[in-house]
Amino acid sequence: MIRRHLILAAVLTGLAAPALAETGIISADTSLGKVLVDANGMTLYTYDPDTPGTSVCYNQCAVNWPPLLAPAGAVPEGSFGLTTRTDGAMQWTYDGKPLYLWIKDTKPGDVTGDGVGGVWHVIMGM
Q: Which residues fall within 8 angstroms of residue 101, CB to CB, at 6 or more apart?
């Protein structure tokens, strides 16, 4: 009986994972708890001055906080959407908030950008 429950749990977990896998965004453990990370395990951030579906992080801001760009043909799914940057590139969003990386995070699980300037925040994971 326990074995059947373990198998069922494994199957259900496998069914839930693809929604995040399509975007390459997953949830990972960090010193802050579970946060959203990109396919390389690097922490994702939101920027308070952005408005829903619109990035205002360009020029030096985008050098320090690279936008999480979506590949051609990417499709929004669930809480994950897309916004078009001024250069035409597509950027992933979460609940309408554009997503970014932080150049000072050097390894997976780093969360050094959380709270920078009081306007950058990790996205607590699922």
A: 38, 42, 43, 44, 45, 65, 66, 68
Q: What are phi and psi of 84, to 5 degrees?
A: -95, 125
Q: What is the pLDDT of residues 44-83, one digit of tens each?
A: 999 999 999 999 999 999 999 999 999 999 999 999 999 9
Domain count across the chain: 1
- Both tokens of 15, joined, read 């069914």
Domain that holds residue 93: 2-122
- Dist. CA 41–CA 35, nearest whole Å: 10
Longest dimension (CA), the chain: 58
Three-class SS of 1-52? CHHHHHHHHHHHHHHHCHHHHCCCCEEEEECCEEEEECCCCCECEEECCCEC
What is the pTM assigned to this prediction? 0.82
